[in-house]
Design a protein that fits this description.
Layout lengths: L8 E7 L3 H10 L7 E4 L27 E4 L8 E4 L21 H9 L7 H11 E3 L13 E3 L9 H12 L14 E4 L4 E2 L2 E2 L2 H6 L8 E4 L2 E9 L2 E9 L2 E12 L2 H11 L2 E2 L1 H7 L5 E2 L11 E9 L13 E6 L5 E11 L16 E8 L7 E3 L10 E3 L6 H18 L2 H4 L2 E4 L4 H5 L1 H11 L1 E2 L31 E3 L14 H15 L1
Parallel strand pairs: 1-2, 1-13, 2-10, 3-21, 5-6, 13-24, 14-15
Antiparallel strand pairs: 3-4, 7-17, 8-9, 11-12, 12-13, 16-19, 16-22, 16-23, 17-18, 18-19, 20-21
The structure holds flavin-adenine dinucleotide.
The site of flavin-adenine dinucleotide (FAD) has 42 residues, from helix 1, strand 11, helix 6 and helix 12.
Length: 512
């Protein structure tokens, strides 16, 4: 192959080496006849000390896109950092290593919404293919996949985790041994980890594939746009360690995640006509759904100080969780316990926790109705995007997150938990019992979970807000696919890492 990157031609160029991109690159390059180039804007590896963080602790700075997101629907008011992963492995390399699959109801709703290939029965084999589950060996779990999944054994639970499960029992939440098959219940939390360390897709998929002569991985390479010949994608333009490069390819697949993929599409001339004109970008395809329908799981968090000696530094944060249904309805709330949270691991929380080790319970709304948007503000990546999360813009979400917060309060005050906790911080009985106060507090303290999805939605071409078809092909153009969280048409009832890997497993099977 010639040295000059301007002249290089690849069978497949994959943009973004995250949960989906690293998986896709590894799977496609299994065919030695196919040349695959993976382009990643970030660095190759996490450095110390982040590599040795306790399991479950997310990396929120240093290896992230330093974006700012507005919590509402307008670019004003409450805002904060929104740091999805920027390194090989993407968000899978900075996340909490919670290994939950999307639920059957998620995928059956995709199928009912016009993408019939996406029933639960059709996706299950791909969830199995990605994992080696250490605890279950039945027909619904995998035993040969690259991602190790395991749950803590009962004798590994810390005292607060055990108390949480007892508290769930007190409140009538059924126990379940496997959160990846039971839709509702409380039980041990599966994580993608080995020897207490998060296993990202860079570890699980790319590492064993990197010696292949037909796979090239360029890090510190930021793609600005897709190049077209008419309506056919023929390559990408990028900055490689600050130097402009163009690479040519038969197929281009965007795996840049729920925030960056729509930005690349807009900079490439795919989006809403007037918006593209305002960016000074010629239109290649009018797809007004690009950057719209941004969904994120939204959560409230209750902090508590444990009794002396109950928590220990360096112990995994997440060991147990519960998924519960909204009043009489479908599963829609996730409750996650983090124990052993120390002030050194999140310096900003020192003030809240009175500089002591803390216990944190969060209620995550898994099926939010609210939507935001992410859009480019100029023709190249130097222009920061505008991200409006639209959190709690729908009243239904406010009410359901209030319900979730009441549940957190009941759990914190269940007798099993009070035996392990000294006192709860910030929240009071009065705030919980008074509807108006609770509503205000939920609006004020609600936080995004960094799970962006829906910004290049999958759907049939007749659905004007969809961007890709059910085989990941971008409507109206040839040779261009999107495979990442942006195609997810409605928020998943779980955090999304395993589901994004599953998307890539499926794409690889179709693209083989
Ligand atoms: C802090 C945090 C904690 C989380 N915790 C969990 C958890 O515990 N469990 C769970 O299931 N989910 C969790 N998630 C969500 C989950 O990790 C993501 O939903 C999932 O990884 C998204 O996968 P993706 O392939 O869509 O994008 P990513 O994995 O984000 O990959 C996108 C990649 O593309 C690269 N990229 C972007 N733009 C460009 C460009 N222009 N040129 C080149 N490369 C580019 C990025 O740098 C990145 O590496 C968490 C996410 C975050 C951020």
């Amino acid at each position: 192959m010639p040295e000059d990157p301007w002249l290089q031609h690849w069978d497949d160029v994959i943009v973004g080496g995250g949960s989906a991109g690293a998986t896709l690159a590894a799977r496609l390059s299994q065919d030695p006849e196919r040349s695959v180039l993976l382009l990643e804007a970030g660095v190759d590896r996490l450095g110390e000390p982040q590599d040795s963080y306790p399991l479950g602790m997310s990396v929120l700075s240093g290896y992230n896109w330093d974006y700012t997101a507005y919590m509402g629907t307008e670019p004003r008011g409450r805002h904060g950092p929104y740091g999805v992963g920027k390194l090989l492995g993407g968000s899978s390399a900075v996340n909490g290593a919670i290994a939950l699959r999307g639920l059957a109801a998620d995928f059956d709703s995709w199928a009912a919404g016009g993408s019939p290939e996406w029933t639960w029965d059709a996706v299950l084999p791909f969830f199995r293919a990605l994992e080696t589950d250490a605890d279950f060996t039945d027909a619904t779990h995998g035993s040969e996949g690259p991602v190790p999944v395991r749950r803590p054994a009962v004798d590994e639970f810390d005292p607060v985790a055990l108390a949480f499960l007892h508290a769930c029992k007190e409140l009538g939440i059924p126990q379940t041994a496997d959160m990846n098959t039971g839709a509702v219940g409380a039980g041990p939390l599966p994580s993608n980890a080995r020897d207490g360390r998060r296993i990202s897709t860079a570890d699980a998929y790319l590492e064993p594939a990197r010696h292949r002569h037909n796979l090239s991985v360029w890090t510190r390479t930021e793609v600005s746009r897709v190049l077209f010949d008419g309506n056919r994608a023929v390559g990408v333009q990028a900055l490689r360690e600050g130097r402009p490069v163009q690479v040519r390819a038969d197929r281009v697949t965007l795996c840049a995640g729920g925030i960056n993929t729509p930005l690349i599409l807009e900079r490439s001339g795919i989006g809403e006509n007037r918006r593209l004109a305002s960016l000074g970008v010629p239109v290649v395809a009018e797809l007004p759904g690009v950057g719209e329908d941004l969904a994120d799981h939204v959560a409230t968090v209750v902090w508590a100080v444990p009794r002396a000696g109950v928590c220990r530094k360096g112990v995994p944060w997440h060991q147990v969780m519960a998924r519960v249904a909204h009043d009489g309805g479908a599963p829609g709330l996730g409750v996650f316990l983090a124990s052993n949270v120390t002030e050194e691991t999140i310096p900003e929380i020192g003030k809240v926790t009175e500089d002591r080790i803390a216990v944190v319970l969060s209620a995550m709304l898994l099926d939010p109705d609210s939507r935001g948007a992410v859009h480019a503000t100029g023709p190249d990546p130097a222009h920061a995007p505008v991200i409006t999360l639209g959190l709690l813009s729908e009243q239904s979400d406010v009410e359901r997150l209030m319900e979730g917060t009441r549940l957190l309060w009941s759990l914190m005050n269940a007798s099993a938990m009070t035996r392990t906790l000294e006192h709860v911080l910030l929240w009071t009985e009065r705030m919980i019992q008074d509807e108006d106060r609770l509503r205000k507090a939920v609006r004020r303290f609600a936080t995004p979970m960094w799970h962006p999805s829906g910004t290049a939605r999958m759907g049939p071409e007749r659905d004007a807000s969809s961007v890709v078809d059910q085989y990941f092909r971008v409507h109206q153009v040839d040779g261009l696919r999107v495979v990442d969280s942006s195609v997810i048409p409605s928020p998943l009832l779980s955090p999304m890492n395993l589901s994004c890997i599953m998307l890539a497993e499926r794409a690889a099977a179709w693209m083989a």
